[in-house]
Write a structure and sequence with these properties.
3 strands; three-stranded antiparallel beta sheet; alpha+beta
Length: about 80
């Protein structure tokens, strides 16, 4: 096991059972920064691509979140 993998395993073990206000993801160096290098602390498993991580674009209110992403297909 490379040292980098051992360090990630230790970090994920340390985060196990700790409640967080939002999801925590750890990442390893990868030739593609959004590539399969991300692991969710609460749901470890095979590395995920960045776009596979959960996201929340915030409240759907243009007054408080004017730059919220809107999917063109939802219009």
């Amino acid at each position: 096991m490379p040292v980098q993998d051992a360090e990630l395993t230790h970090l994920l073990d340390a985060l196990t059972g700790i409640p967080t206000a939002m999801p925590v993801a750890t990442g390893l160096h990868h030739e593609h920064p959004a590539g399969p290098a991300w692991t969710l602390a609460a749901d470890p498993g095979p590395p995920r691509w960045l776009h596979e991580l959960h996201s929340d674009h915030g409240p759907d209110n243009t007054a408080t979140n004017p730059h919220r992403y809107t999917d063109p297909d939802d219009a």
